[in-house]
Amino acid sequence: MLKTKVEEVLVNQIEKEAYSSNLYLAMAVWAETNGFEGVSNWLYAQAEEERLHLFKFIRYVNERGGKAVIPAIEQPPTTFASVKDMFDQVLEHETYISELINNIVGTCLQEGDFTTHTWLQWFVTEQIEEEASVRGICDKLALIGDHNLYLFDKDIMGLRAQAKSADSTGA
Ligand code: OFO
């Protein structure tokens, strides 16, 4: 059974994961309507992943005797200055989410909830991977600049596949 404090922080995170999914959908729409097909595919896939995270939090709260609350979600931005600016915002957002996950881990320890603490380790690892893969993309964009993004747009799904296979091999 979840303690009230732990349930509260988990339920708060439901809104954060839902917002993350919508933010990446909004970015995907911007990329798709500005001719960046590869970037939009990357973002659509990312939005799907965030939706899975959202479901994980909902199901866990309910399974542990709590009650998930489906929140209203703030509208994400609809335009971005450039692909680079957008990915900088993705990195900033992922860093923020990592901090939130870290705070939830802290609450679990304070409350002596070692079951939820263990369950959260998947998210801790996921955030490390997400931050690293987005940081890699931001570094590439810093090298390329805002012009000549044609090849970058063609390659970005390959970068995603590489990051995923490195994760699964522990590389
Ligand atoms: Fe939900 O993992 Fe990123 O934000």
Give structural notes.
- By secondary structure, this protein is mainly alpha-helical.
- It has one domain: Ferritin, core subunit, four-helix bundle (Ferritin).
- Helix content is 80%, strand content 0%.
- It has five helices and no strands.
- It has helices spanning 4-33, 37-63, 83-111, 114-144, 150-169.
- Helix 1 runs antiparallel to helix 2 (37-63), helix 1 packs antiparallel against helix 3 and helix 4 runs antiparallel to helix 5.
- The termini are far apart.
- The mean pLDDT is 94.
- Hydroxy diiron-OXO moiety (OFO) binds at residues 17, 20, 50, 53, 94, 97, 126, 130.
- Residues 17, 20, 50, 53, 94, 97, 126, 130 line the site of hydroxy diiron-OXO moiety.
Provide the CATH architecture: Up-down Bundle
How much helical structure, as a percent, in the residues?
Answer: over 70%
What's the mean pLDDT score?
Answer: 94
The counted number of beta strands is 0
Q: What gap, in angstroms, lies between the N and C termini?
A: 37 Å
What molecules are bound to this protein?
Answer: hydroxy diiron-OXO moiety
